[in-house]
Automatic annotation (TrEMBL):
Pfam families: Acetyltransf_1. NCBIfam families: PRK07922.1. This is Amino-acid N-acetyltransferase. Residues 4-143 form the N-acetyltransferase domain.
Length: 175
């Protein structure tokens, strides 16, 4: 039997994470980052590997980036081609949402082409930008993070976001 093992990423996973992301970045689905950014952000990542009959290296990765007291973003969610449709993405997303709850985040943003996938887990298409308090908006503008700029829909990152859909998951306190 093959089982999926979800675990926090380690620094030694960075080359494999980069291998997962590289073809998707070339296709414009995920943002390409410098290697140093993966090491700096390694604590944001969860990874999945298969154990049991089918031993594998990393077959999926995903990260939760905290933006504000109540707001986080799921980013860099990817399953290797050979393992799509076998529960890797669902396992990662569930782990990242659990992390969001644990750290106190009540809203989780994502920017994606995979609207149907995220909809299955309660994410809804954002109707407008008015979900950001003006004071918070002003503070978030100070961030150098590209993902924050995408959340704010800033002009300088428009080429990254073309065709993507902005979605939000509201976590209820009792969940
Ligand atoms: C915020 C971001 O990171 S956006 C970027 C999202 N990532 C990408 O676009 C990268 C390319 N895509 C992928 O790597 C994968 O297709 C993912 C991550 C979107 C999904 O990963 P998978 O491992 O294939 O998903 P998984 O097998 O867990 O699917 C869970 C369920 O969603 C369904 N599903 C999977 N992909 C899709 C999809 N594109 N649309 C609708 N349903 C989907 C599956 O059928 C499954 O349904 P079930 O529970 O009824 O069996």
């Amino acid at each position: 039997m093959t089982e999926l093992r979800l675990r926090p990423a380690r620094t030694s996973d960075v080359p494999a994470i980069k291998d997962l992301v590289a073809p998707l970045a070339r296709a414009g689905v995920l943002i390409n980052k410098d290697t140093v950014a993966y090491y700096e952000g390694i604590q944001e990542f969860l990874v999945v590997e298969a154990v049991g009959d089918e031993q594998t290296g990393l077959i999926g990765c995903g990260a939760l980036h905290v933006m504000w007291e109540d707001l986080g973003e799921v980013r860099t969610l990817a399953t290797s081609d050979a393992w799509r449709g076998r529960g890797v993405g669902r396992t990662l997303l569930a782990g990242l949402i659990e992390r969001a709850r644990a750290v106190g985040v009540s809203r989780v943003f994502c920017l994606t082409f995979e609207v149907d996938f995220f909809s299955r887990y309660g994410f809804e298409v954002m109707p407008n930008q008015n979900q950001v308090d003006p004071d918070v908006f002003a503070e978030l503008l100070r961030s150098h993070d590209e993902g924050v700029a995408e959340y704010l829909d800033l002009a300088r990152v428009k080429p990254n976001t073309l065709g993507n859909t902005r979605m939000l998951l509201e976590l209820s306190p009792e969940d």
